[in-house]
Amino acid sequence: MTVLRLLLVFLTLIIVVLFSASFLLNVYDARAYLQEQLESHAQDTATSLGVSIAAVQSDDIAIIDSMIDAVFDRGYYQQIIFTDNDGKVLVNSEQPVRLEDIPGWFVNWINLDAPTATTEVNQGWVVLGQLSVTSHPGIAYRDLWRKTKSNLVLFGLVAAASWLALTLLLKLILKPLSLLEKQAKAICEKQFEVQPQLPKTRDLRRVVEAMNRMAKRLQHLFNEQVEIIERLRDQSHRDHITGLPNRQAFDNRVNAWMESEHGESGGGLVLLQIRHLEQLNLKQGREAGDALVKQIAEQLTEVFHRFPGHVVSRRSGGDFAVFIPRMSMELLQNTTEVLYRQLIGLQLLESIHASDSLHVAAVLRLNRCDLMQLLTDADISLRQLQSRGVNGWSCSKVEPEQASCMDWPANKWHQQLKSILTNKSLILYNQQIYDNKRQLLQREILVRIQLENDIISAGVFLPMAERFGLAEEFDKLIVELVIQHLLQQPADCPYCVNLSPRSLQSESFSNWLLDKFDQHRSLLSQLVFEVPEYCVQLALPIMQQLATRLSKLGGAFSIDHFGVGANAFAYLQSLSVHYLKVDSSYLKQLLDSKDNQFFIQSLVQIAHSRDITILVEGVEAEDVWQLLLSLGIDGGQGYLLHRPESL
């Protein structure tokens, strides 16, 4: 029972007890008063009527009868009887007691006595007889009943008004308690809210002030912890001048991409080298060299930010590398040219006064490849450029050994994708996700299509679908097929469905998704919707709204490839997320990388404090899995645990 309800019950009981006592006292006082009035009334009437009868001739019974009737007819008497000295009744006027408008229980409770007053009628020294007058209690009952009803109505109105006033007053006084409860729950979820309005009551004000101080202190400690984790991660994974991923982070992320199913689509690699950087350092100081490196990093970030999943890295000195997954030759060539033209105009670069200070080489592979081979191809192109002795750029394509659908012209791709949507010919696979006890936790839905004689993964065809504006239609089809499957065959665990960035940035798709599961609420609890981390960073407000609405309907929300972005912990305080999947790049060299181990362990501690489940992807070795378990992860997926299979 809440404090408010407890106080209301207690105060209501007090009001009822006080009124009941007051009411009973008033009733019994009124009863005693009316009883005395009835006795006095009977005695007065008997005395006055006896005097009147004494003035009449004793044998004139008719006049005496008339006098008694005149008094009796006034209705205040139950009986008036006049007897002679021998007890013979000479006159008797009597009426029954009828209480038609008064409840019987009230009459039985009050139980007024009908008093009888007796007096002798004398003429001089001669006793003529005896007169008895009995008052009628009906009027007393009616008066008392009317007063009782009035008191009850008055009490009801006063009690209702008092109860309402007490409720409002107590709610106002105890409102800080509900805010304190909300504040405490928020603190448990690492949301350190502060109550701006302090209560007026001194005791509650002190409690709220103490909670505010605690929230601020905890927020400070939490932010310090997050900053330390981010700083240590940056020291091991980022270049300290530009803030870009370093060589190790770049290699781990690209290798993880290539080894995943997305790697089937290949990608482009851009190598950029600034020569004679040491001359700039000698002439203008190291600050000028650092400024040039920062400007180049900013230009690279600006040019490639629109490509999902890209990785920009400073490898060493004036060497930079950019990996762009799922690229076309035309787009890579245009982007490389734009990058070169923006960089060649940098003032600090011109101050080197060398005609061979900038070289940009890009290579493209349209199928799965090895990073070292891709780096080798790009390095060869870069050396060929430098051998010319002038600034320049180049873009080349490494032809696959076998023909690939990535070589198809745009119109053929568009036609094939539209046909798949029309025929709803998607092929659903699943990969099982296990918890830390190797019990089935989820099944991640993987999508395939058949093009000619080949089965093509989502990592190949979905980028093309986004290019033609069909990603939203594919996501809708995937969701509908999963719903259809669940209706036919109930799931033994939740299904994890990936949503594309283009769909998540569409308000119409969000509304469609919520309307769809408003019709199938029982199925929503069997689904987990997953989005990549970079998508959350691009559209955080939309993600917050969608995640909150899905949670209210009973659904779950997950973030994939977590940890590759800058300030990875920043949005966890504002996003209602149920699962985090650590990017597989952190599993590369995990056994030897104390930094990666520290990051995963710290992430587990922070996530568990917010009731977020930590999963890892790309588990392929038993010793890595055992190390992850010792770091506290909740589960994972990968070829070690389960290979994809048809749904």
From TrEMBL:
Signal peptide: none
Top-level taxon of origin: Bacteria
Record keyword Membrane present: yes
Segments crossing the lipid bilayer: 6-28, 152-174
GO annotation terms (biological process): signal transduction
Domain GGDEF positions: 265-398
Domain HAMP: 171-223
Pfam families recorded: EAL (PF00563), GGDEF (PF00990), LapD_MoxY_N (PF16448)
Keywords annotated in UniProt: Membrane, Transmembrane, Transmembrane helix
Protein name, per record: EAL domain-containing protein
Source organism: Spartinivicinus marinus
